[in-house]
Design a protein that fits this description.
Elements: H1 3-14, E1 19-23, H2 26-37, E2 41-47, E3 59-64, E4 66-67, E5 70-71, E6 75-78, E7 87-88, E8 99-105, E9 108-111, H3 112-117, E10 122-129
Antiparallel strand pairs: 1-3, 2-3, 4-5, 6-10, 7-10, 8-9, 8-10
Length: 130
């Protein structure tokens, strides 16, 4: 589901680049909006490829934050996979200083801090390490 986005993010960081391209979809845009609201990515913008003019969805160019040659996000680890989802109850959410999880709740995607505050559980999409 989100595996392509997570792979592109990690590979871009490992290659030292500050941006990557991703096929446009509502799920990816919701994920990127969450990262943007929390200032974990610099920005993103829609760009069009030649195939998008023929009815495709187009592409998204995602800009990562890099300070003093270090990326703000060290890595993203996918937790739930399409064949093996991982769910968590709100009372089992543990907050950590060096990472944060993105959880798909009944109210949409949110970070673990907000899910715990709203007493919501859900499917753990990934963990982001800082």
């Amino acid at each position: 589901m989100y595996s392509k986005l997570i792979s592109l993010f990690n590979n871009t960081r490992l290659n030292g680049k500050s941006f990557f391209y991703l096929n446009k979809s509502v799920k990816y845009l919701n994920f990127l909006n969450l990262l943007l609201r929390e200032s974990l990515i610099k920005n993103y913008k829609s760009v069009y490829s030649s195939s998008s003019c023929l009815g495709g969805n187009g592409l998204i160019k995602v800009f990562l934050i890099k300070r003093n040659d270090l990326f703000l996000i060290k890595s993203i680890k996918q937790v739930s996979k399409s064949n093996k989802p991982v769910f968590i109850k709100s009372n089992k959410i543990r907050l950590k200083m060096d990472s944060s999880s993105i959880i798909l709740t009944s109210m949409g995607l949110m970070f673990d801090v907000k899910a715990k505050k709203l007493n919501l559980g859900g499917k753990i999409i990934c963990t982001i390490f800082f």
